[in-house]
Design a protein that fits this description.
This protein has helices at residues 9-12, 43-49, 51-59, 73-85, 98-111, 114-126, 133-139, 147-164, 166-174, 181-187, 192-210, 231-236, 242-246, and strands spanning 16-21, 38-42, 65-68. It has 285 residues and is mainly alpha-helical. The protein has a 3-stranded mixed β-sheet.
Length: 285
């Protein structure tokens, strides 16, 4: 991510704003005189990194204390660590439950922090291969902030279809018997919208393949899923590099991706004599 907005001499000269996460100060056992949910941050750094603080502090120029409608002070602390040090150490494979992602993405939307939101999105993207189509079922009725996670996982599933074929995709899905397998998934009318979106996404990725622009979702280095307020911030994004994107195009074997195309009636129509001879080149293996 961009290194603008980090602490520097200009921010050190700026007035300090007291931030309280929640309505009241919360004290811990180790430092009884230091509230856990209170932070002191330079005003200029907040203005540079948050739409929310721009609005709040602009409406009251002399304001020195801001109470955030966010009671999880650990989220606020992680956001400030990102601003100060340009990294978010908590984000790793084991911490990427949808509940945690929702918490951070919702907070990013609250304070208007592109930086936080896009770092979380990048981490989700890098680990998307750990999710299956069943994750889409969990996400379709979840918090709106997780819609980007749905989009990333959907594209990864469609990429598997394009690079491996429908039969192998369905075999992968069917291997999870605890979830009911592919036949059970496609027979559930509540999943019909997901199946239709998957079919449309496969069509889109086939077009990208024909144009030699298909990229493995886990390996994308562009800012396709980023949230940018305007073209100026997008232009400054270090991942916004068209030349790098073009160089990532995936080479896909020349065989029909519609072998065993699924239907919503009898599961799928098998026509897959070549399946056992196709190379496993999925990004999610």
């Amino acid at each position: 991510m961009t290194r603008t907005g980090m602490m520097n001499a200009k921010h050190a000269r700026s007035p300090v704003i007291k931030i309280v996460a929640g309505e009241n100060e919360v004290f811990g056992d180790e430092e009884a005189d230091a509230p856990l949910n209170v932070f002191y941050v330079s005003k200029s750094l907040l203005l540079e990194n948050s739409v929310y603080f721009n609005i709040i502090l602009d409406s009251a120029p002399g304001r020195a204390v801001v109470f955030l409608p966010e009671h999880d002070y650990l989220v606020v602390a992680d956001w400030l660590d990102l601003i100060f040090h340009d990294r978010l150490d908590f984000l790793h494979e084991d911490s990427l439950s949808f509940d945690i992602l929702r918490k951070y993405l919702t907070f990013a939307d609250l304070v208007g922090s592109e930086k936080l939101k896009n770092v979380v999105i990048d981490t989700m993207q890098a680990n998307v291969a750990h999710h299956s189509i069943y994750a889409l079922r969990d996400l379709q009725d979840n918090h709106p902030s997780l819609s980007v996670c749905f989009d990333i996982i959907l594209e990864c599933q469609a990429y598997i279809v394009v690079t491996e074929g429908w039969a192998r995709f369905m075999a992968r899905t069917g291997s999870d018997q605890e979830q009911g397998g592919w036949d059970g998934f496609i027979a559930d009318k509540d999943n019909l919208d997901i199946v239709n979106k998957l079919l449309l996404k496969v069509d889109d990725l086939n077009k990208e393949y024909a144009q030699k622009s298909l990229i493995c979702p886990t390996e994308r280095e562009d800012c396709k899923w980023h949230d940018h307020a305007n073209e100026e911030t997008k232009a400054k994004c270090p991942r916004n590099d068209p030349t790098k994107q073009n160089s990532q195009a995936t080479s896909v074997p020349d065989w029909s991706v519609y072998d065993g195309t699924p239907t919503t009636t009898d599961g799928y129509a098998y026509r897959d004599e070549e399946a056992t001879r196709r190379p496993d080149i999925s990004c999610s293996s």
